[in-house]
Design goal:
There is one protein chain. This protein has 14 helices and 2 strands. It is mainly α and 317 residues long. Helix 11 (239-253) crosses helix 12 and helix 12 (260-278) packs antiparallel against helix 13. The two termini are 21 Å apart.
Length: 317
């Protein structure tokens, strides 16, 4: 997209994000989940699209954010919003530290080995949480009730997740235009050559994973409070759903592009909601079919497909 179109699109999305919950208060929860999906896709794409490290373990940082916020709110005895703020802070610190530790141990491996290792990381985290009594084990955790009136909770978290998605997009947009963005692309294109050119690839990879963990932890704390309950396998460390959807949304929109993950999140979330509305009982079958369609017919994503069509049109003319 050129610069004018870029700003126009951002303005339209900002207007929709601000007006949507007020015009459609009954859909505030669905809109909030849309912004959550945008964060998922953007954070996964930093590793999988920009850096070429296909992670299936990013859900770990989302789960850490969920539980850290819940534990702080439960144990500190603070008023709701103060407890939420402190819980979000604790979640980001824990998630970033986890990304640094896991990154130092795992980012030295590449390709399928890294993908499989991160998949095991997500599964292990879910099993640990499901067996840890301090965080409710398999019974899960209930979060404090939102102190506002009925319906205000959904609107509050809808705006909170919209703000988080906007900040995440703008930060990544800025970073991709710096030397850091070029370093990510160099690692993706030829890791050995990037090492030979003097790039400190390991710290760069760890920083990228830690930055993704930062935004995922914030989204986890906000989403957990919006839902009101944390299940270790179906919410916090839901690798079979959230963890897979991160990858699919980035691929659908066009991984490695600025707008691809955002577009993929919009298309995937709206399609999924339509499945749940009109194909009740067959929604998982339809979702599985959608996954196959994405992988087979859109390997370059919607953005890549549009660019290819545009190039063919220009060549034909």
């Amino acid at each position: 997209m050129n610069r004018i179109t870029d700003w126009h699109v951002m303005g339209a999305i900002a207007l929709a994000g601000l007006a949507g919950p007020l015009l459609l208060p009954g859909l505030a929860t669905q809109i909030a989940f849309l912004w959550l999906m945008v964060v998922f896709a953007l954070t996964w794409d930093m590793l999988g699209g920009r850096m070429g490290y296909n992670s299936f373990g990013n859900i770990v940082f989302f789960g850490i954010g969920c539980y850290a916020a819940a534990v702080v709110q439960r144990d500190m005895g603070l008023p709701y919003f103060e407890g939420l703020a402190l819980g979000l802070l604790a979640g980001t610190v824990c998630a970033v530290l986890a990304a640094i530790v896991f990154g130092a141990a795992m980012l030295g491996i590449r390709g399928h080995y890294f993908a499989i290792g991160t998949l095991g990381l997500g599964i292990a985290a879910g099993e640990v949480a499901a067996g840890w009594d301090y965080v409710g084990a398999g019974s899960g955790m209930a979060l404090p009730l939102y102190p506002g009136e009925l319906g205000q909770r959904e609107i509050f978290f809808c705006y909170s997740l919209f703000a988080l998605a906007a900040v995440c997009f703008l930060v990544f947009r800025w970073l991709y235009g710096t030397r850091f963005g070029l370093a990510l692309n160099a690692i993706r294109d030829d890791h050995d050559k990037a090492d030979a050119m003097g790039l400190r690839t390991t710290p760069i990879k760890i920083f990228a994973w830690a930055l993704s963990a930062f935004f995922l932890a914030l989204s986890g704390g906000l989403a957990a409070n919006m839902i009101g309950f944390i299940d270790p396998r179906d919410v916090a460390f839901a690798g079979a759903t959230f963890g897979v959807w991160m990858v699919l949304m980035a691929i659908l929109g066009g991984k490695g592009t600025l707008w691809g993950p955002v577009l993929g999140a919009f298309v995937f979330h709206v399609t999924q909601e339509l499945f749940w509305t009109y194909l009740l009982g067959w929604q998982r079958v339809a979702l599985g079919f959608l996954i196959v369609v994405i992988v087979v017919f859109f390997p370059q994503g919607i953005m890549g497909w549009l660019a290819e069509r545009r190039a063919r049109t220009e060549a034909g003319s």
